[in-house]
Amino acid sequence: MEQVVIIGTGCAGLAAAIYTARANLSPLVLTGVTPGGLLTTTSIVENYPGFPDGVDGFELMNRMQKQAEKFGAKVKFATVDSVDFTKSPFWITVDGELVVSKTVIIATGAGHRHLGLASEAKLDKKGITYCATCDGALPVFRNKPLVVVGGGDSACEEALYLTRFGSVVYLVHRRDVLRASRIMAERVLSNPKIKPIWDSVVTDVLDVQQDKVTAVRLKNLKTSQEQVVDCAGVFVAIGHQPNTTLFKGQVEMDDNGYIVRRNGAATSVAGVFVAGDCSDHVYRQAITAAGMGCAAAIEVERHLAAIS
Ligand code: NAP
Question: With a 6 A CB cut-off, is 112 part of the ligand 1 pocket?
């Protein structure tokens, strides 16, 4: 039987892994389909303390994993099929095999929010993507007009990154003020290759018939005017939704699917703890996720001491 199983290997999961490993609990750490979490799809992380010149997101996560493994964490590339938290110890089915654990830390993070258009689903990976760092350098996007959707830090980061490849980058935002931090907004608005298109939403991505992205149809929300903007790629960066479907009916969640966190890192089930973006729609930073991972690990230690 495991002392602790950590589900997820983003900042929250790996910070929890470092702390529980250093507490000699030999955590079993399950990566899920995105080892390292969403930060691995970011380019330079400039706001993680300790890196005055920034750090590559993938590199940061790689280092965290190594640090956890150095102290005895068992990191396994595996996906959780289902969980049963109705009795303790807890049952977790991992790639068809049963794992039993005294405690669990849920750190499954969040995934990309989609526009919800039929054409978006049909053209996914055929010119529509959710990660400029992953796909921006593809030949299909080189020296072509590109569209980024969103007005937050992610959209700004994507737009700036894509200026290396596209002939022009249109930033389509549903309002006329960016949500992004001031420093990112200033960088975007002063970049001559980025053309903001304000107060507008994407109503369709063309061209499903050709099985590739050729343009977007936009609607101005103030004037209701429509326009078609030619482009070779659409980079959707409109936020995230929590990866918590697995835990429906097992732990308490809010209306948006975020796991309700109480007293630091506890959930509605004693012995099941939570950390990071799957329970946080407010801060959503690497450093806050890591902090929550630390808190969850400390709570696991206390819980194990209390039940032993
Ligand atoms: P976000 O801050 O939630 O921004 C999402 C953006 O998408 C908003 O501008 C929002 O518009 C727009 N949006 C949402 N739903 C939409 C829809 N259905 N159609 C069109 N537009 C839609 O998400 P994020 O940019 O991914 O950032 C998440 C967190 O990570 C933030 O705390 C951010 O600061 C942080 N982050 C930091 C960095 C960095 O520091 N390097 C990089 C990336 C992310 P409204 O503004 O109108 O709501």
Answer: no
Instruction: List, for residues 245-271, the tens digit of each pLDDT value.
Output: 999 999 999 999 999 999 999 999 999
Q: Give the C-alpha separation, 119 to 113, whole Å.
A: 15
Q: Is the CB of 70 under 6 A from ligand 1?
A: no
Tens-digit pLDDT profile for residues 70-105: 999 999 999 999 999 999 999 999 999 999 999 999
In whole angstroms, what is the distance from residue 282 CA to residue 253 CA?
15
Cβ pair 42, 27 in contact under 8 A: no
- Write down the CATH superfamily of domain 114-236: FAD/NAD(P)-binding domain (3.50.50.60)
**Residue 231 in this model has a pLDDT that exceeds 90:** yes
3-class secondary structure, 104:
strand
Instruction: Answer whether 175 contacts ligand 1 (Cβ < 6 A).
Output: yes
Catalytic residues: 131, 134-135
Ligand 1 near 47 CB (within 6 A): yes
Across 127-144, average pLDDT: 91
Task: Tell me whether domains 2-111+241-307 and 114-236 share a fold.
Answer: yes
CA of 308 to the centre of ligand 1 (A): 44
Q: Does 39 score more than 90 pLDDT?
A: no
Ligand 1 centroid–CA 54 distance in Å is 21
Measured distance CA(120)–CA(114) in Å, rounded: 8
> Class of the 2-111+241-307 domain?
alpha beta
Q: Where are the domains of the chain?
A: 2-111+241-307, 114-236
Q: Which two tokens stand for residue 305?
A: 């001491």
Diameter over CA atoms, the chain: 66
